[in-house]
Amino acid sequence: MKPSSRLTARLGVSQFIGWSSGFYLPAILAVPISESLGIATETFFWAFTVALLVAAFLGPRVGKAIDRLGGRRVLPFGSIAFILGLSLLAASTSIQMLFASWVLIGIGAAMGNYDAAFATVVTFFGDESNKIIAGITVFVGLSSTISWPLNAWVTESFGWQWAVMVWAFAHLLVALPLNLTIPRLEPKTVEQPSPKTPTGNRRRIRIDLLIVIFAVMFALEGFMVASVNTILPFLLTELGASVGVALFAAAILGPSQVLARVLLVALGKRMTPMRVAALAMLSHPAGVVLVLVFGIDALVPFVILQGIAVGLDPFIRGTLPLLFFGPEQFGERQGYIMMFSKIVVAFSPLLLTVIVLWNPVAGILTTMTMGLSAFLLLMALALVRRAKVAA
């Protein structure tokens, strides 16, 4: 097996465990955990929001550490934080323990999930990282498809505490060993200056206009993807679908995003980061147009198009910054770019829920506007890149 394939499999499996035990955990376990602790479900989601904010603010520091030390010295600490956080969550008997557990899980996500994994890939393969990043996202695309039924079955059979501990053991027995066996050798791409970035300022990332454009673009796109993803069944029922139809349509989301990622890997270099980004940002707006024209009859195509947007989202977050800035100081810069997006994503489900309760059509018009605005910023970036190439 080639080194790139080994790294894809190693990080893909550990990322699958990380996302299954973090971002995708509340979908099934929020209600039983809240009932067990005697708290409102909203309180549980505030604890979850804290985890997202912790991950956002730690991003630049984690990225800088990976740039300097490599993923082998950073990613294992993410697994350890997950193990501690999940174990504390399983043992929680109070709100204080709940919030503390999610703080630890947030630290684990910052040190072990997408941005950290992508930075690790870039330290090894530099500008040739796109295919590996795409391969990793295929593994993560299976998270909801596998973890949701598993969590539901374990909760029903043994209790939610064991559903949480399954993932703690998965980190201990699988993810941690995989992260500890990431190769030590760092390639020359980390040591050599990238032709796409200035070399005079190695130690500190300068927050310039280009980074701000990236941050705003990914925040808009992140709102569109994350908010709809989180409340999809509720959104579909508010748009007029029956509960059965809404659940059936929502079930298509996982396979749609996995299919998008598999096709991305299969098509390889023909799907450039700019083309993939355009498709990701326009898929959801196209689905909204179908709903506005055809009503609830278009809900299944709407979900499929949303799945495409979700499936392509992590790929463009890893490859677009690499395309424009190169591999040098990738992790730290990625942390700064994604910080604003992660903060927006943390509050996006609540904001969209409020809008949908007021007017469901206004809700999907809002998310469509977010996607189209992100696309306009992408076009601005395309002009910047064209000017640089021409120069």
Descriptive overview:
- The chain is mainly alpha-helical.
- It folds into 2 domains: 3-183, Growth Hormone, Chain: A (Up-down Bundle), CATH 1.20.1250.20; 209-390, MFS general substrate transporter like domains (Growth Hormone, Chain: A, Up-down Bundle), CATH 1.20.1250.20.
- 82% of the residues lie in helices and 0% in strands.
- It contains 18 helices and no strands.
- Residues 185-201 have low confidence and may be disordered.
Mean pLDDT: 88
Write out the CATH superfamily name of the largest domain.
MFS general substrate transporter like domains
How many strands, which pairing sense, and closed or not: the largest β-sheet?
none
Q: SSE order in H/E notation? A: HHHHHHHHHHHHHHHHHH
| CATH-derived architecture of the largest domain | Up-down Bundle
| Count of the separate structural domains | 2
CATH top level class name of the largest domain: Mainly Alpha
Quick one: overall form?
Answer: globular
Number of helices: 18
Fraction of residues in β-strands: under 5%
How much helix is in the residues? over 70%
* Structural classification: mainly alpha
Give the low-pLDDT segments: 185-201
